[in-house]
Amino acid sequence: MTAKSAAAAARATVYGYPRQGQGRELKKAIEGYWKGRVDADALRATATELRRTNWRQLAEAGIHEVPTGDFSYYDHVLDTSVMVGAIPERHRAAVEADALDGYFSMARGTQDAAPLEMTKWFDTNYHYLVPELGPDTVFTADSTQQVAALGQALALGLTARPVLVGPVTYLLLAKPAPGVAADFDPLTLLDRLLPVYAQVLTDLRTAGAEWVQLDEPALVQDRTPAELNAAARAYRDLGGRTDRPKLLVASYFDRLGDALPVLAKAPVEGLALDFTEAAAANLDALAAVGGLPGKRLVAGVVNGRNIWVNDLEKALATLGTLLGLADRVDVAASCSLLHVPLDATAERDIEPQILRWLAFARQKTAEIVTLAKGLGGGTDTIAAELAANRADLASRAGSALTHDPAVRARTAAVTATDGRRSQPYPERAAAQRAHLRLPLLPTTTIGSFPQTTELRTARADLRAGRIDSAGYEERIRAEIGEVISFQEKTGLDVLVHGEAERNDMVQYFAEQLTGYLATQHGWVQSYGTRYVRPPILAGDISRPEAMTVRWTTYAQSLTAKPVKGMLTGPVTMLAWSFVRDDQPLADTARQVALALRDEVNDLEAAGTSVIQVDEPALRETLPLRACDHPEYLAWATEAFRLTTAGVRPDTQIHTHMCYAEFGDIVQAIDDLDADVISLEAARSHMQVARELAGHGYPREAGPGVYDIHSPRVPGADEAAALLRRGLEAIPAERLWVNPDCGLKTRAWPETRASLENLVTAARTVRTALSAS
């Protein structure tokens, strides 16, 4: 096919779409099901209607080929485990008794069975459920869910393409099951898994699929020759079968690198590549392999992870370059639109001109369709759209919101000394022990306590004008008093105020900093039914006034025990926002760090002796390629130190991280120079404690003994067992006892019981240590 005919044939497509619905109907239906207010049929009916609505919106917008299989009740990787029959033995009976309840038991756990481990999906804030595999794993095909979704779309008269997690990525994301040797490599199961994928592909072809997309984002990471050979073998096998649909192998989030020639040679009919995060690298690599003659190329030229309007002329130039490199070029977003909110037009509190800078899922869909039209019919067919796009880009570039000379001058004046504590850690530790006088194995929580219905109602009443600020603040004071009282009665050693006034750990701060925009309806799935509204980091950042001092000092006035000041760190403020794309991330991080430094110093001046600066996103923001790690880690750790280094030696700086793989950033954790770090460890059975010990981490650490992402209550014996395992790696004088994460999403009954058991466990182990 010539470049001209490839352009004329250009189609618009997407890899996935937000699942929740405009009013988060899916969240409400699932949580209603868990509470017994919604039955299974009603839940399924809600899911069916949401899928139908999504597909119709896409088709009406001009998308030629809609995705199926991207919708999930909880997580698409968990759906893949169900599809291939990789059900952990502890959940098998529940799944066999009731497939839906068994599915949720794997995601959330039960009182008798722990859930699957949860961690971040590459470098996003989406969490997936980690497959558990071992040498005895038996895979069996179950394509029921995938075939049903395809059938629903086809019944609407739509062209549909099922989207599945690819077999290589699935195995590379997996971990050894409990009881399996830690050095077991799940990739050794590839030959056992491929016939199951082949059966699913056959089932989908029989059901009417012309194309099936197999997502292999793991191949954009650094891969060994053995892993690349496995990918080649997988697609020789699947591509070589005759009873299958056409195969589109998709990658995203970075450049494909050494995996590109492997996939280009494979007997598959198409590739999908990211031309936003790694446009130049993927273009060069594609040209180097001689393009994709005879194959379909789906070009991800619209950023699927951020919310800024696309530069349409730049994207068209990229598409034009690609025309000679494939038999057919189609237009798409760079990845699933799962990672952005649904519709920017729902926002009423953002100025109309600024709103035109933003593109959520529906606006990105329109951009994709416009680009496909322009590629096929020429720029004259989209002249009005191009003119409007140029005006929007110019408006943003010239806005006063974007540039603040005072912020830029302060940032430019930062020196290396500003990022160093005044004394080394051993001297600080001695000063802090003398000042705080904490017991061995001190107990604490991560920060937030349950956000009750009453709190959410009070917040909604304040917004609606049903109560005034005085009434709302009285409710917050009462909640803080209850939280402090509970912690004292339970026997926790370092307390928190519970964050009753905070809607979200990033949004709360963003709403008080200049340069940020907040949304009302910009919900994005973080995990399961947990949705967040990432703020939009649009311009230069500064702090007009103190943000947390008032409530922290009020809480401290209620107790003689230390109350931690709680802040969100600069990297997480970037990672869990939609960050500006018009300057280096390092520059933005330094601006946020200086604003937070002012808050840290004000907390200390108000008498706060323990200050926690959370950085759960430090690991997830790590670039996917190792060669890009040093530059990122240098500015990320510098930003944390810039935030925290201005305090006295006897002020104890904590940080917190959760639900990520920390083994490859332990040196960076060390470089933060925090006095205490708390980390998720319960689901991973204290793996991080062993990683810290292996590195020789010299400071205090609190690997979590209570998994807060499950409703189950861990017994005191269970928590004590985890604590003893932690002591095998970390000396008692440097070990803290705490949950994995904040308690915002938990209910009070399970929180009370779990924390009481946590304190009992700490006392039991503490007593045993004293006796020995």
Characteristic key phrases:
772 residues; alpha/beta; five-stranded parallel sheet; 29 helices
Describe this structure in words.
The N and C termini lie far apart (79 Å). Helix 9 (190-206) runs parallel beside helix 10. This protein has 29 helices and 20 strands. A seven-stranded parallel β-sheet has the order 1-5-7-8-9-10-11. It has a five-stranded parallel β-sheet with strand order 16-17-18-19-20. 44% of the residues lie in helices and 12% in strands. It is an alpha/beta fold and 772 residues long.
What's this model, at a glance?
The chain is of the alpha/beta class. Helices cover 44% and strands 12% of the residues.
How are the strands ordered across the major sheet?
Answer: 1-5-7-8-9-10-11
Structural class: alpha/beta
Please report which band the strand proportion falls in: under 5%, 5-15%, 15-25%, 25-35%, 35-45% or over 45%: 5-15%
Low-confidence stretches: none
The end-to-end span amounts to 79 Å
Number of distinct helices: 29
Mean pLDDT equals 95
Radius of gyration: 26 Å
